Every structure is written in C-alpha cells, then in structure tokens.
C-alpha cells in the first residue's frame, strides 16, 4: 500500500480495527446460533453483545502483544475479548476453527471493497456518458496503427469506454458474488463440532451466501477469480489512460489533462504540461495486473489447506483493491476535467489532404464497375502522392486529374465522396446501443 | 502448441482450414445482407454460396502464396476466393475492413473452443460425482499444513473438487458469452460504409451477439476476461493434481494414478510408480496461467486499434485452449481410473495415536466447566507426548491417566470422544449441497 | 511455436532429430568414459561410434512408436539405438538415469539457442551503430511524457538502443553460462552407480561445465534465470519497437518502417502505411515475457525432483527462444531499413515556437541574479502563451517583449539562448562512451 | 509493504528521510562539481554543506505540504532546502532535471538494498554449510516424484541448497552492478546545461558507475534485470521452503520447524505443529515473483521517458526488497533451528523393503550378462510385489527366491547390492565441489 495512491474509504476496510470488528461479529452471531441450538448458554451470547453495545475501542496493540506470545492471531483476539467480556466469553468460538473466522471475515472485506469499486465504476460511467453526449458529434480522426484512418467522433471514443466499463461493472458484480461466501464448518470442513445451522445464521447476518463445501478454508479459486477480474479492469484503465496520453502528445494535442494553476510540469522546463495522471494510471494498472498471478498460484493449497495463501492475501487484499479504487477515482477525475480541443481535432482531421476519404472512393470505383484490384491500385497511387507530400497535395484534386479515375467517376461524384457527415450517420445507432434510447 | 499435449478436436478449430471456412461464411452472410439492402447484386451472394456448396477444398498453400506478395492475410484470402468464384466475387467484403472478418472469426473459434472446454468440464464433473458417491463414507485423515487434522472422507474431497469445477463451468459459460460477439462495423467502427443490418445478420447466422460499439476491432477486455478465466480453471486443475501427487507419496500412498502394464516408471529404478500425469498437469497449469498476462497486456491498444494483440493471439488462442482441453481430459482420465486404497487411509488415520480427536476432548473439557485456556493446556500437554512418540502412545490412554483431565471428564466420557462416526454425521448435508438431494 | 514467427536455424535446434542426436552423443561419450574406467567393454563404445559414423537417419516415428508402449522417452530411444547397434548397446546408459540425458541435452540445446541469440544481438548492434553514426548529428526533438522537451539527435536515440542491447548481450552471455552445465550423476545425484569422471568427460566433450551438485536433475534456478533474461531482452525490443511506432504516427512521421512495393496497408483504406512490424514486435515481446513466470514456478520441484517442469520446458524451450530469435532478426531488419525523415524532424522541432529553449532562458535568468522561483514564473508565463497558441507565437519574441525579462537579460543574451548547437555539444562524449573513441 | 513481513534495516532504506538525504547529497555533490567548474559560486556549495553538517532533521511533513501545491516532488524538496539554507541555495540543481536526482537516488537505494540482501544470503550460506557438514553422512531417502528413489544424505540436500544460493549471490552481485549507475545528464540526457564532469563527480562520491547514455532517465532494462533476479531468488526460497514442508508432513516427519514453548499450532486442534514459517515463505515467494512482470513492463517507456514506471517503483522498490530481505532472514532462522530426525529418516529409508536398491540389482544383472530388457523385467516383477505389500515383503528375499535371478547372481552377490554405504561414497566429492576442499 502506497499512501499517495490510497483513499481513506478503501484503506479503512483493511485496518486491523475493521478486521477485528468483523471477527467479533462473526463470533457473536455464531454464539447466538450456538445458544439457540442449546450448545452454549444464551447468557454467553448476551454477554458478548452487551459488551459490544458499549461500542468498545479495538485495542490493536493489546491484541498484537498477545499474538507475540501465542503466535496465533485468532487465539490472541479471543483472549483479548475474553479479557474484556469475562467468563461468559469462554463459550465463544465453540467448535469453530480459526479459518472459519479468517476466511469469512476476508469475504466480508472483499464484499465491502467490491461495493466501493462498483460505486467507483458507477461514478466513472456517469462522467463517461456526460462526456460522450457532450462530444457526440465532435468529429475527430479515427486512427488504426497510430495512422489516420477515417473520421469518428470524440463522443464515440467515450461511448466505447463506457461500454467497456459497463462490462467491467458486470464482471465485478459477478466476482463479488463469487467471493462473498461464509464458511463456519470446523477444522476440516465436516461440521464435526458445529452444526451447519450456525454457518447459515452467520451468513445471513453478514449478507453472505453459504459455502457449499469448504475444507478448512474457503476454496481459493473464488479469490483467484476476484483478483483476475480486478486485473481486467486495470487493463481497461490502462487503455483509456493510454488514449489520453496519445491525445495529449505535442503533435496531436486534441485533449489535455486539466492543469491546475500553480502546478509545475518540469523543474527544468517551464513550458511543459505533461499527462502525468494518465501515465501514473498506466503504472498503477501494471501493479494491479501483477497481483493476478500470485492469486492464481494461491489456488493449489495442499490437502484441506496450507497457509501459503495468507501472506499473499495480506499484500494483495489491500494493495489490489486500494490501488484499483484510487485508479478508478483518478481516472474519473481525469475524464471529468479533460480539456477537449475540437478545433485541433478538426485541424488534424483535415491535415492529410483528404486521405481519410480514400475508402469511399475505392467503393465508388468498384460500384462503377472497376475491378476491386484496379480500384485499389488507382486510389493507392494517388494516396501515396498525398502521403509523401505530408498533406500538401489534395487527394480529391489528384483524383480529378487522374484519367483512369475520371473514366469511371464524374467530378461531382468524386467530390461527393469527401463528405464528413457521411461517416457520422450511424452515431445515433451506436449511442442507442450503449446508452439506450433515452 | 505441443503435439503431445493436444487433442485433434481442439486442434482442428485452430487450423487454417477452419479459420478460412469461418472467414468465408462471414463474407458470404455479409454479402447476403448487402444484397438484401440492394448494395450489391443478389447474384453476387448467390455465386458465393453456389461455389461453397460444391464443398471446395481450402487451398491454404495458394492463399499463403498470395499473402507472401500482398503481406495482408485477408486480401490474400479474398483474392483466392475471387480466383475461384469469378467476377461476382468483387462485391464481396463491400464496406468491410479486415478486422470485421478477423475478429468475428476469432469470436467463432473461441466459442467453438469454449464448447469443447465446457464439455470437458462436464465429463470431469460426471467422474468426480461418481468417485464422490463411491467413496462418500470412506474415512481418511483431513490434513491442514500437511499435518493430520481430523477425519474427513475421500468422497468429500471429490465433492469439493466437483463444486470447484462446477464454479469453473459457470465462469467459462460467462467467459464464452463475453467473447462471442460479432463486429461488422468498418474501418473505425462507424458503419460509414456498411449498414448495421449486415452485422446483425451475420451475428445471428453465426450464433453471436452484436458488439455494441467496436472501434476497428472488438475490444480486447473481452478476450482478457476469457483467458483470465482459463487461468483460474488451470489453477483448479493444479489443485486437484497436487492432491493426487500428495496422496501417492510413498509414505502416504492412499491413492495412485493407474499404472498400465508395460509402463516403466524409471529407466534406472524398476520399482518406481510415479504420479507423472498429475505432475504433468501441474506444469500444464503453469503454462495456461502464463498466457493470462499477455492477454491482459493486449487490452490497451492504441486509439481505434493497433495490431500488437494479433501475434499474441496467434500463440495463446490455440495454446491456451488446446493445453487446457488436453489437461481437462487428462485430469478426467486420472480421476476416473485413480486407484484408491481405503485400507491405507484407515491405517494412516489411526497412526497418530488418536491425536485427531484432540479437539473433541478440548470442547468436552470446556463444556465441563474448565476454562478454555486450561482445557487447551491440558490437551496440548498430552498431545505433545503422543506426537513425540511418533504415534506409539495413545492420546486416550494418556488422558485417562491425567488427573486434571479426569477431574472434569469420566473415563466413559473420554472414550466417547474417540468415535470416528462423530466426524461424518454431516456428510449427507454437504453432499446434498453439492449434488442436490437426488 | 507459430511458424510465421520462426526461423529455420532456431527451429532446427528444437527438432526431435537434434534432440536425439544430442542424446546419442551424451550416451556415447559416457560409454567412452565408462569403457576407460573398465566398467563396460571398449567394444561397446566402439560399436556405438561405428554406427554413428555411418551417419544414420534418426527415425523419429520408430522411437515414438516404442514410447507409445513404454511411456518413457529415454527408454524408447535406447531401445531404438539397441535395435540398430545390436548387442553391444546393452552397456549404454550404465548407471545413468534418464534425467542425466534429458537435462544435459537441454543444456546443449539452450547453449545452441544462446549462440544464435547472441549472434542476433551482434547483428542488431552493427545496424544500430551504423544508424547512430549516420544520424549522429541529425537534430530531433527529445520528448518526455510525449511532450516536446529539448533537442537531441536521432543518432543519440540509436546510441541509447545500442547501449541497451550491449547490456542485453552481456546478460545473455551470463545466462548461457548459467544454464550450460552437464549432470551425469545418477538417480538422485549421488554418483552411486556412475563415477564422476564420466560426467567430467561428457561435459568437456560437449563444451559444458560440470554441475557441482545435482539431485536427479540440474537445478531449475539456472533455467529460471535464463528465461528471465530473455524476458528482459524482449522488453528492450518492445521499447525500441514502441519508439518506431511513435515516430511513424501520422502527426509525427519522423521515421517509417520500409514499405515494400506491392504491400497493402489496409484492405479498406488504400492510403495506409502502418508500422505493423513494430506492432508485431510489441506483441511478441509480451509472449516472451509471459514465459518468465512459468520458468520461475519451475524452480520449486519436490525433493530430488518432480517432473512438472518438463511440460513447461517443452513449450517455453522452443517458444521463447524461437520467438526471441525471430523478434531480434525482425527488429534488425526494421532498424536497418528504417526510413528516416530529417526534414520532418526539423519541422517538428521548430513547431513549438522555441519552447524547447525554455530551460536555457531559465538558467540565464537565475545566473543573472533573478531568484529561481521568479525565473520559473517569468519563463512559464510566456511559455504558456506560446503553448496555447499552438506554436503560432514565438517564445523568443515574447521574452524580448517582457520587461521583467529584459530587466535581467539583453536582447542579444535572449537570442543567444535559442541556439540548437548548444544542445549537441556533448554528443561526441556520449558516442565515445557507447562506441569507444574509434 | 506489510509490517509483519518487514525488518527495520531494509525498511529504513525506503523511508522519505533516507530518500531526501540521498537527494541532498546528490544535489550538494553536484553543486561542488559545478562550483569547481566555475558555473556556480563556491559559496553556494559551502552553504549547502555547512547546513548539512548541522545534521538537520528532515521535515517530511513540510516537504509534503509544499508538494501539495507544486505537485512536483523535487521542486518541493528544493524549495524546502532553500527555505533552510537561504539565498545560496538558488544555485543548487543548476542545469539538472528532476530525474537526475530521482533516478540516481533510486540507484543508491537499490544498491543499499542489494547490500543487505547479499548479507542476508551470506548469513544463509553460513547456516546451510553448517547444517550440511553436521548431516554430511546422515542417510535419508532421496525422492523423485515424491516416491522413494535411492539413498542420499541430509547433508547433500543442504549442500544443494548452498550451491543454489551461492549462485543467487553471484546473480545479485551482478544485478547490483547493473542498477548502481548515476545519471546527471539533464532534461533529455544531452548534458546541454550541465557538464558531464558533474555526473562523474557525483557517481564517484556515491559509489556508482556513470550511466553511459541516459535519456531523461536511467534506462529501465537495468531495473527489470534487478527485479527479475529477485524473482529467481524468491523461487529458490520457495524450493527450500517446500522441501521443509514436505519433510514435516505427518507421514514423513524427518524434520520440523522449531516450535517454541507457548506457541499454538491450531486454535481448535491442540495436537498440531505446523510448518507455518515455510508455508509463509512460499506465499512471500509468490509476491516477489509477482513484482517481476511490472518491472519488465516498465522498460518500454515512451521516447526519452514517460513517468509510468514511477508508481510501479514506489510499490516494488520497497515491497520486493523488504519482502525478500524478510524472507531470506526467516529462511535462515528456519534452517538454523530446523529440528532434524535422523532416526525417522532411517526408519523411512528402510520401510520400502529394500526397493531403493533395485537399480544396483538391475546393473548387476546386466553386468552378469542378462539383457537390459530381461534384467528390468526381473527386477520390476519382484519390486512390484514389495510395492504392493506396502513394504512388508523384502526385495532381497524375493530376489533370492527367484530362480531366474539366482541363475545370474549368487546369494552373496545379491546381498552385496543392499549396502547403504555404496550410495554415499561420493559425498566427499560433491562436498568438495560445493564447499572447497577445506
């Protein structure tokens, strides 16, 4: 966890305090169910909640001190609770194993983290839709291979990003569901010492589903899927960040990250305005992706469990969710305030001497009866001249002067092919697909 | 692709022949729709299908030869079709761009591959359920950290694997849906030169959904999610393979891969019977996982597309699906024929001098009024003696001889705690969760 | 292995024929040493070499057929050799284990592959030095964050790449040394049944060093280091490829991949000339990087060995070396024929209205006694005007009109700061560092 | 960074205080050189050192507060220094760019971290050599595929680990050298505003080598190689940790992590003693490996630099070195205190009814003139009986009762083949290779 790439809401989920609070709730709800079953006295459960209702501070240092002796975190926690609650606390954790607490608590934390991340994506989607509608008909050049291809609109770029993050939202909802399970099944998952009713009760209270079959632990394919999904989302962030970085290049400059007064782009070069936020997002995406493989390696635990996954999760639980949360919020900020330059887009669009209309001419020639191969050759030979002139020559003029072309197409027909509006006629269709018909 | 880790059904999907067949179908269906729109003559579409209905062989060498000149695969293919179909072929590909063909074809291939993989998982699930029911009540020691914990049954191990692969099946179905989209939207996704109706027609004919907004390409977050899902499945394979490897260890030997007559375990040591299939699966899992990161790196293409994803997909499209298909089938074979040794399981289970029952004694002591801390201390001090004796001492006998224990529990109560059946009473519950109540 | 990304020289190393040839040489050299020790008859060794000197074809199909029965590749090979050599062959492989053959052969293959890769880098270094010297003094804008910074030369870019690949060469030499070891130490590495003299003899004959302590296998940290090194080299390829892709962008167009006559950039857009080779290299780099993690996961084999590494190496042995070899050669071709546009570089360099000289003015102001903070403010306020004008305004003219600036610097002093030569005065120094003083 | 997996020595390297101290030293040494060149007044350098010699506390909060406004870390730092040093500080950083400071400082930090890691490995090597010599002749079964193979000694296992970590030490020394370079070359690496003499001076003072050609930054292939090397070392840690985990399995129990009094293995099962440290190391290895790919992805920065690498390095710089440092120390502790059970090793060694001697019998039969195939068949048929008896039958006795065997070998010859000492005769040779002849 790097403080500068962390937001308090997400960080709070991963504090010892929050973890211990969840642990307590699991233990107390379990004690309720055990009391209901008659396994432990109802007074035991009552004593736990009575203390809890005093809203006691979680004394992390005290718990850590006990763990330094016992070398076992759950036992340390239980000891600390017993020190506070008194004798009735001895009925707590009856028939349970540490992993019942640890794994169920992790599920709660991951569900909490998911909820923040889903909200992050929702906020991003709102911004993307606004920018999409704002620039729905702002023409700009579409580029394949970094080379001018044909016109699109800036709104379409935003709509594409919206559709991609809408998919990511759906994936995240599925990943949350995958990981939000409760296991209170005892040392090897057999419920030998604890009735399955307890598990069902705790699950319901915490908003989790019941893990159908656990060993000692909740199976780690669930977590692997969760972190893999975060890796996909991070890659989408990288994609949009890379788009902004390209648009802000000096020679392109069709959009710019907002540059606040007082900000300095470079200590040495006062003229610089750099896309540092999106470059930063590119790096953050690498990190979130880097956490996928350790999560995948965590799946193959030995037999009913080993604890190798635990240290990995102490890193990637916080690091992946905190980093992704920060990155999504940063991306939302960048897109929200992105300074868009339609005039520059238009200038770039027209700089290639009309080359972007080459395909329409090609189609017109074939429709006029010229073979596909000949059509391609005719257009390419004129296009290459324009290309080599760095946009000084005009494709339309060259075509009008090419007798093989004019043998098939009239001057008016040629001119008709250089109409920008032609390219934008289905923008409505695409917007309706992405945003609905509202 | 490594031939020895490949099955013909999956390999066939990735042959040039299959790819070119799909390309043709995309082009021909698109021509149908274009003809319906009046953009091209109906004769053009008819000519394509007329040739196709002669079931022509795909001359891969001829297409490759054309590509060697044009350095463009789709143009090479179109030229070859035109050479065969004749003049009417010039209307083909009208308003389309290469990626319309390439990406839609890849979607078809990935859908085909998914169908095989889903069938693979289904076959594995059948075997796992059979082995689970067969050994539903076969007791065996559950192990955490590789150390004996408490009893489970071998059927529970199989049920756990079944539940995990059932989850993987659901994930794969979702991944298939994610990736099975059709884009026929032209050079930058604007439908400038082709009506969206064509896309809808081709999608329907090929069993795909329409890509809501493409650029030049189908967005690669879809493929990233697909390959990430394969990585999760591979990790589950590694988990079950690792279980078998552990069970076959000389000192454990509770199960063994089937060893066929004539097979040699070692060129030097004639006595060896090695778990080579599951070790092999462990390695194959590493490979499928290794393809996840390149797929994630493919997402951030530049602007409306660059072609860096293409070479990656030429590797991982075949390699990931072929390897996973092989691995799933191999795993199914291993589990199907796995030789299970219940007698050895029982022997191992009892070798620890009853230590596996320590928790029940602990619970009984606390329920008899001994504090949790004291109970733990009492059990642990006797358990450690058994441990140090390498199972020669009996926990039950030691407890019966410990006055602090007998002060709380009668001999009969102590003996009652060493009952194996106690641990298996909820196996039915778990089986019902995993397999339903049938 | 993808045929289109493979060269015959490297592919040949990974054929079954080459592997079996190396196996034979290991066995025959070992038999020589065993005969010298008196363990086997000298006639046995002589018989092996006598047959080998007939230059027999390697009948891969026959060996495969035997393996289909024995399910053991080395035994299959030995059986096939025995079928050809006759009775004397029974002394072959005395005291050896399969891994002695397999691992030593892999070491030979990786050394052979390294030699090709080192030669590839050498060829690339020659080209990079030539292009560096050719454009040693060709001015071009240096960019940080994709934004114009200060002038460099195109030769410096090439020199940087040269230095990077020279480092990669040294790393590869070290990786080759790491992996080129010979182990003939028997079933668990104790030389129980074979004298260490045999290992030393085979190592010397094959140009390998002796593995100081093997288990059954050569330890896989060596291979991990090897493949990790390939991953670093691939990343350097990606860096140079990305540079070319950027330079070829329509708006930049300072360099272009060579575009051969007859080549088609796009089936739909005849005007396109795309940097497809360097985009392809970007994808290939992802693949070679993707092989690093499986190689790292191969290190932790169980006890004296398990065979999980083997399947991984069947993929990445060929795939990583073949892909990297192809990529290095492709990169060399791209750099060799790269079309460089100095005029366009100059045009881009001057398009920012002199902003690239902002730092020098900043320094001059501070040296003239203005505080650093004030100097920065003065330059930035003028630079931002130029920036916002899209290069239409001139920084020099604005500075000359700014009274706060002219209070510190004379007009002549200001003009002196806009000298391009100033930036290139240490190019010789850098070239001497990279290429020596020749 | 996870506190529980961190040691203060390494953590100290990554504190803001240490970073700012290095920054200051770079700036002050550079000012010295600039003063020597006459570019800045000697009083400026003197003023910096005069303040520094007062051993001022680094006010991180103050620097952070300035950065919150400037959004530029180096400018914030320089401003803070100027606030403390006064007017003379304005000559600091003359002609330098932020990356000159940042990258050179990172090089110093990575060199410091390397020194700790090298010391860690040295400490581990000492322990491994001690345990190797202690158990040089302690027989134990060697296992391939987890199956008993032939005898080795526990000392050989330690010697193997020693050799592996000695290789890792050499790799780390090389990686340190790769990464410990100094770049003071200005905004785009041309030394336009700063003489190369400054770089040479700072490099010498800080114990770094001069970066031959930088852009704005030190090229990231160096860092990629560094972190890749850490990934290899982590994988070796995983290997040795996995060995211990296997040895501690209940059924094997040939060695155990030291279990301190008061420690609790399980909250539910008082009898447990789990290899939690080595399981933990397995997880930590996954993390360090996970940082390799982001480091590789950092290489391909755009043009003369983008800043995407920076956020990655803020994570992996500390996280990879701190985690690896902790892991190496933990591993050293585990190996130092590892409880080894030679009696159990001997018991396991003999439990297979002599199967471990099967190869020697095989060799003896072939040397007695039986064909290799027949020899294999004879040994295998008896070995399989022993295997199926779970060690109840004795291979030696079965062979003595097999007429086909006794036709070739006398009873005395058979018995001679079951000698443990036979397997250990070359232990000295191997130890001499690993530890020298001392």
Q: Classify the beta-strand content of chain A into a percent band.
A: under 5%
The third-level CATH topology of the largest domain in chain A is: Fumarase C, Chain A, domain 2
Instruction: Sketch the major β-sheet of chain A.
Output: 2 strands, antiparallel
Name the CATH homologous superfamily of the largest domain in chain A: Fumarase/aspartase (Central domain)
Helical fraction of chain A: 55-70%
Q: Specify the overall morphology of chain A.
A: elongated
Write down the secondary-structure element order of chain A: HHHHHHEEHEHEHEHHHEHHHHHHH
What structural class do you assign from the helix and strand content of chain A?
A: mainly alpha
Largest interface: A-B, 92 and 92 residues
CATH classification, class level of the largest domain in chain A: Mainly Alpha
Low-confidence stretches of chain A: none
Give the number of DSSP strands of chain A: 6
- What Rg of chain A is obtained from the alpha carbons, in whole angstroms? 30 Å
How many domains in all of chain A? 2
Arrangement of strands in the largest sheet of chain A: 1-2
Oligomeric state of shown chains: homotetramer
Q: For the residues shown, what is the average pLDDT of chain A?
A: 94
Q: So, CATH architecture of the largest domain in chain A?
A: Up-down Bundle
């Amino acid at each position: 966890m790097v403080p500068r790439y962390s937001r308090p809401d997400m960080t709070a989920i991963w504090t010892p305090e929050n973890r211990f609070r969840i642990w307590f709730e699991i233990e107390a709800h379990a004690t309720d169910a055990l009391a209901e079953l008659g396994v432990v006295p109802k007074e035991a459960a009552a004593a736990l909640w009575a203390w809890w209702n005093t809203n006691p501070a979680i004394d992390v240092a005290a718990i850590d001190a006990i763990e330094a002796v016992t070398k076992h975190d759950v036992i340390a926690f239980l000891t600390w609770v017993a020190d506070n609650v008194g004798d009735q606390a001895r009925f707590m954790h009856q028939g349970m194993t540490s992993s019942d607490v640890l794994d169920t608590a992790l599920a709660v934390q991951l569900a909490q983290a998911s909820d923040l991340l889903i909200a992050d994506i929702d906020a991003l989607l709102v911004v993307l839709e606004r920018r999409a509608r704002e620039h729905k008909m702002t023409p700009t050049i579409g580029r394949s291979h970094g080379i001018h291809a044909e016109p699109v609109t800036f709104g379409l770029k935003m709509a594409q990003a919206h559709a991609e993050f809408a998919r990511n939202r759906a994936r995240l909802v599925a990943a949350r569901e995958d990981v939000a399970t409760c296991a209170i099944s005892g040392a090897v998952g057999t419920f030998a010492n604890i009735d399955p009713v307890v598990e069902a009760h705790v699950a319901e209270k915490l908003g989790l589903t019941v893990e159908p079959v656990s060993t000692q632990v909740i199976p780690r394919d669930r977590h692997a899927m969760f972190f893999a999904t975060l890796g996909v989302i991070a890659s989408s962030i990288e994609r949009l960040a890379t788009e902004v970085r390209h648009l802000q290049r000096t020679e392109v400059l069709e959009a710019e990250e907002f540059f606040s007064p007082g900000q300095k782009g470079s200590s040495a070069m006062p003229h610089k305005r750099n896309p540092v936020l999106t470059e930063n997002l590119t790096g953050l995406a690498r990190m979130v992706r880097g956490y996928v493989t350790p999560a995948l390696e965590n799946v193959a635990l030995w037999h009913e469990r080993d604890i190798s996954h635990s240290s990995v999760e102490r890193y990637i639980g916080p690091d992946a969710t905190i980093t992704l949360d920060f990155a999504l919020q940063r991306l939302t900020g960048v897109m929200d305030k992105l300074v868009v330059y339609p005039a520059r887009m238009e200038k770039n669009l027209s700089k290639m001497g009309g080359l972007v209309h080459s395909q329409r001419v090609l189609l017109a020639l074939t429709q006029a009866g010229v073979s596909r191969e000949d059509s391609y050759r005719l257009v390419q030979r004129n296009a290459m001249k324009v290309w080599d002139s760095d946009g000084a020559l005009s494709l339309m003029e060259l075509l009008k002067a090419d007798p093989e072309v004019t043998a098939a197409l009239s001057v008016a027909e040629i001119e008709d092919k250089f109409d920008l509006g032609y390219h934008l006629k289905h923008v409505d269709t695409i917007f309706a697909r992405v945003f609905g018909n509202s």
